[in-house]
Write a structure and sequence with these properties.
heterotrimer, B: 353 residues, alpha/beta, Peroxisomal Thiolase, Chain A, domain 1, nine-stranded mixed β-sheet, 14 helices, 36% helix, C: 380 residues, five-stranded mixed β-sheet, binds zinc ion
Chain lengths: 139, 353, 380
């Protein structure tokens, strides 16, 4: 049976977004130095238009997390999966799946690091969106 | 000494996914005697990639470790070659995805290699040629999420992993961890194992994969190389063979006159299974994680179809410092979550029909 | 507000989206007659997705026989209803129109639950949230965990809120879940997005509601039951929760509330009934705090002391709220306002609150990306 997903990323979208997804690129206002993750043309803090890319590093901590038992169709076979609200070292927050651990092992404050994964895949065309997920930090 | 080359290994890195399935768990599913399989294959468990992992993602993880050791800025890399038989796309290069993920420059030589389990060392030899002929710093990767048909003996062993190496030459003027000094390849047309276009799982010729395929090529390549270099088995502190199961490399060692001690660090199959294109290269990663300056290493890969690449390496002073710069493979081998057969079926995307 | 039309929230297998819209219009006409309508706002979130229909507003206007009347669909997530009424309010305030019809209509049972979950995930950021498999419930679950962690809130408080909503819905003939639940049943319900349980979440619903807004003069001509919209305000917040300083503050709600209070010139203590957006129990708690009717992290104490029950001084959602009346996303805001209209005109029957004068209605979109706040008052 072929499956047609509703939430399918287009090839141009996958291509456009790959830089940020692959390398966890963030942004910083050149004027007020506010760092942020959501790509914008205007600084959310001081409204400056001068925004530059920054590296956010590969480590962070779990601020909050949830375990999804009722997933969207597209993520059915991944269920249950863990999603974290991760605070990166620069104070910037991102959403990402937490992998390589069991739900009961995740706690608020857990230290995590970036793992390069398949974020989503169009099972019909095979188009893959790669990007960041997080795993418990390996020491 | 003829044919001497001089390529530096500047960095190395290995990655194995966290999940494992044991031979016991698989044999239980099929009502088989686990002892029989453990004995026959000489392995306990194999690594299993998650649904969100493929040969590309494993390679990126191995490369990140490798880059830390090499202390090379990604933009300085001039070539990337990836050997795999489980490409994420049938048509669309894996090497370019990895290059983008690591931040490599677009002005590089890049290619995907396929030669069954020998694709990884094939990437290594092409990369060697590149850095010798054109200078610069190259990245060679072996990565696979190997496929084993349910109930097939391969199901017990087909694992997942990736190994990456950054190579340079004397022109790159960087601290070397080890030198690759000799190389020899031996290939013939031998149909011991193949996968038809469009098929999900490979076919193999069972016992035919043994003496006319694995042993013939492995032994020939190793002997010819040692003859060229002028070494004997006892000259090597470490030897690494392709390890499709736990028994073949032991038998090959015996045929060539190596002893068990020399296999200590390079034999990983019993814990992670056959990682195909990453197989012998992960053995090399493990050896480098544990080697001392002055050690001599013999690496012999094997790929069905069939052929073997043999390499003579000598460990350099730079290794001690580089070892400390990133996680050893052992961390990833010991980090594990064992899964049930049901969970394995789901992780290997067998639910998608 | 001069009149309304309603249909019970539920699973309307035999009714299409246009059918639902037409039915509530007929219900409205049966109360106020064939009145003049200058403009139609249709609030529907999933018209395109579940009913494969763009231009749903002109289609509906045509079906209602409203020849050549301009009609526009308003999409503001599950705040579509509140925002549509806000737009209608502005168009009357502008002096352009005397009579504007708002119809909220939604069909969510057209597809299986996992597809509906996928549709609702589109209320999240399509680049930074939903591609990771985050769902709307999952986002509120992230808020709930942080809330419970930060304020050491006992789980029963959320359960009690849900129990209260179900109790209220029993008396609301338009509610979807007209059955009481126990705390035990709440705890037994399955986890949807940990820590959220099924009974923390509003159900999947079909529904439609119609509301007629008029100028005071025209309203007096056509209706004896008028309710004044004393304030109609809307505000937005950082769209993605990753951009918010605190995920426990619904700034779109507090901002819209502030403006509504000053516009209406009323104080919180003058509000007799609260109609809040309890799409999830945690949404209710955060809403009550952002509206300033309870202190941060203290809502559970009030809930456990029945401070917000129907027979208290400040009833919350006397019709059962989104939790138990049901939550036909794009239509929900219109339901909230219609039920409040019924309360103020004494038409709420078994779910009537005694003699309310001012009702505050909060309707929120997505994770609080947008909020509409209305203050309604009885016309003495
Ligand atoms: Zn700024």
């Amino acid at each position: 049976m072929r499956k047609r997903w509703l939430l399918v990323a287009s090839a141009p979208q996958v291509w456009r977004e790959s830089k940020q997804r692959y390398k966890l690129i963030g942004f910083e206002c050149e004027n007020c130095k506010r760092p942020f993750f959501v790509e914008r043309v205007i600084c959310p803090n001081c409204k400056s238009r001068k925004i530059r890319e920054i590296r956010l590093g590969a480590e962070g901590t779990v601020e909050s997390f949830t375990v999804i038992f009722n997933p969207p169709k597209k993520f059915e076979y991944h269920s249950p999966y863990i999603i974290g609200l991760i605070k990166l070292k620069k104070g910037v927050k991102v959403i990402g799946q937490i992998v390589d651990c069991l739900p009961q092992e995740v706690k608020v404050g857990l230290e995590v690091e970036v793992s390069f994964r398949i974020v989503s895949k169009d099972e019909d065309t095979g188009l893959i969106m790669y990007g960041y997920k997080f795993r418990p930090k390996i020491y | 000494m003829k044919n001497k080359i001089d390529v530096d290994i500047l960095g190395w890195g290995g990655y194995v996914p966290i999940y494992r399935i044991s031979v016991d768990e698989i044999s239980k599913e099929w009502g088989e005697n686990p002892l029989k399989w453990r004995k026959m294959l000489g392995l306990c468990e194999k690594s299993v990639p998650s649904l969100d992992e493929d040969s590309t993602t494993l390679a990126v993880e191995a490369c990140k470790i490798c880059l830390k050791r090499a202390q090379v800025d990604p933009s300085e890399i001039t070539a990337i070659y990836v050997g795999t038989e489980s490409k994420a796309y049938a048509v669309k290069p894996t090497s370019t995805i990895i290059a983008q993920a690591l931040g490599l420059s677009p002005s590089i030589s890049s290619a995907d290699m396929e030669f069954a389990c020998k694709a990884g060392t094939e990437a290594l030899t092409v990369c060697m040629s590149q850095v010798i002929s054109r200078g610069g710093v190259g990245l060679a990767i072996g990565t696979d999420t190997a496929q084993g048909r349910p109930k097939d003996p391969l199901e017990y062993s087909a694992g997942a992993g990736a190994a990456a190496f950054i190579l340079g030459s004397k022109h790159s003027k960087r601290e070397s961890a080890a030198k690759i000094l000799f190389h020899y390849s031996y290939v013939t047309d031998t149909p011991d194992f193949w996968r038809k276009n469009g098929d999900k799982y490979p076919c193999h010729a069972e016992r035919f994969t043994g003496s006319p395929a694995y042993f013939k090529h492995t032994v020939n390549a190793a002997r010819t190389l040692m003859k060229t270099v002028g070494t004997n088995p006892s000259d090597y502190q470490h030897v690494i063979f392709h390890q499709p199961n736990g028994k073949f490399p032991l038998k090959a060692a015996k045929l060539l006159g190596f002893v068990k001690k020399q296999l200590k660090y390079g034999l990983l199959v019993d814990k992670i299974g056959n990682t195909y294109s990453a197989n012998s290269l992960l053995g090399l990663v493990s050896v480098l994680d544990n080697a001392a300056p002055g050690d001599k290493i013999l690496l012999v890969s094997f790929g069905s179809g069939a052929g073997s690449d043999a390499f003579h390496l000598e460990v350099q002073e730079g290794i001690s410092e580089k070892k400390r710069l990133a996680l050893p493979l052992e961390k990833f081998i010991n980090r594990k979550i064992n899964v049930s057969y049901g969970s394995y079926v789901r992780k290997r995307a067998m639910l998608y029909v | 507000m001069a009149g309304y039309g309603l249909i019970r929230v539920g699973e309307h297998w035999n009714k299409s989206l246009r059918h639902l819209g037409a039915e509530v219009y007929l219900d409205l006409v049966s109360r106020v007659g064939e009145v003049k309508i200058n403009k139609v706002y249709v609030s529907s979130l999933f018209a395109a997705e579940s009913s494969h229909q763009y231009l749903f507003a002109p289609l509906l206007a045509d079906h209602l026989g409203l020849e050549h009347v301009p009609a526009t669909r308003v999409e503001a997530g599950d705040a579509s209803g509140g925002i549509a009424v806000h737009e209608a309010f502005l168009s009357i305030k502008s002096g352009m129109f005397d009579s504007v019809l708002v119809i909220g209509a939604e069909k969510m049972t057209e597809h299986v639950a996992s597809i509906s979950t996928e549709s609702r995930a589109k209320l999240l950021d399509s680049k930074y949230e939903s591609p990771h498999g985050l769902t709307l419930a999952g986002t509120y679950a992230l808020m709930m965990r942080e809330y419970m962690d930060k304020y050491s809130v006992p789980r029963e408080a959320f359960g009690m809120f849900s129990v209260e909503m179900h109790k209220n819905a029993v008396n609301n003939p338009y509610a979807q879940l007209r059955f009481p639940i126990t705390l035990e049943k709440y705890f037994e319900s399955p986890t949807t997005a940990d820590p959220l349980k099924l009974y923390d979440c509003a159900p999947i619903s079909d529904g439609a509601a119609a509301l007629l807004l008029t100028s005071l003069d025209y309203g007096k001509e056509i209706s004896d039951s008028l309710v004044e919209i004393k304030a109609s305000s809307a505000a937005t917040d950082n769209f993605s929760i990753i951009d918010r300083d605190s995920i426990l503050e619904l700034k779109s709600t507090s901002k819209a509330l502030e403006e509504a209070l000053s516009e209406a010139k009323v104080k919180r203590r003058n509000i007799d009934v609260l109609e809040i957006h309890d799409s999830f129990t945690i949404a209710a708690f955060l809403s009550l705090e952002s509206l300033g009717f309870s202190q941060k992290g203290k809502t559970h104490e009030l809930v456990l002391n029945n401070y917000f029950s129907k027979d208290s001084d400040l009833p919350v959602n006397p019709g059962g709220g989104l939790k138990a009346r049901g939550h036909p996303m794009g239509a929900t805001g219109v339901y909230q306002l219609v039920e409040s209209y019924m309360q103020l005109t004494g038409e709420a029957g078994h779910f009537q609150v005694p003699d309310p004068k001012n009702i505050l209605v909060q309707n929120m979109g997505g994770t609080g990306s947008i909020t509409a706040v209305h203050i309604l008052s009885r016309i003495e």
